[in-house]
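In response to reviewer comment 3 from the previous cycle, which asked for concrete evidence that the modeling workflow produces usable outputs, we include below a single protein chain processed end to end. The sequence was submitted unchanged, and the resulting structure tokens are shown without manual editing.
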Amino acid sequence: MSTQVVLITGAAGGVGRALVQRFTEGGWQVFATDRDAQGLARLQEELPACGTFAGDIRRPSTCEEAVAATLSAFGRLDALVNAAGVWREGPVEGFSEEDFDLVLDVNLKATFFMCSAAIPALKESQGAIVNISSDAGRQGNRNAAAYCASKGGVTLLTKTLALDLAPFGVRCNAVSPGDIETPMLKFQAEHYGQGDPEGYYRELLAKYPQGDRACFIQPQEVAELVHFLCQPAARSITGADMAIDRGVSAGN
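The workflow returned the following structure tokens.
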């Protein structure tokens, strides 16, 4: 069997980098895309065998270009992992159209059109899609209506694709993390912590059932689950929304 190939979006971010590293360690050929060209260049310095494509996947044409570049580099595609994401927060009555469009375009629209572009190749390989959703795609988060809407859309998009693609042997699953210790989380704390990032972190951790033992999820934990879902051993898992959130979505 040929070496398997994965295309990872948001690859220069915290979760994306962890995904690139995990799949590389697992013997996959990795093609990484992100709009952060400098971040991709640093990633390729660390992992020279990794293919890269810098572009804004909010545009469907860019999604098609990313898939074409993957196929040109490696000749096949066995898995797509949609890990690109952004966070904006605030009450609905003061939320700007610009921020709303950004959140929905990056989190949901880009995921939709990356799947669309990749599906023909994945049908050929009977491959897999894993979309990074969120605990905020399962339940409401205060002051995060746009983000919740985007991730709720990702979760149901995933389930629908699982049904549509099952006859072709293609699996599609969602992974829904809680708060991950990444640059995005740091951005949240610095921009929305009202000058008290540590207080912002404490408020986030207070919702976890571990109490004083609560801590943020590590990107490597998410990468490990995603990597498993793309393996033949997970062939019976499709249409799932798998939480990795220290129990925060289990209830109160």
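The radius of gyration is 17 Å. We consider this sufficient to address the reviewer's concern, and the full set will be provided in the supplementary archive.
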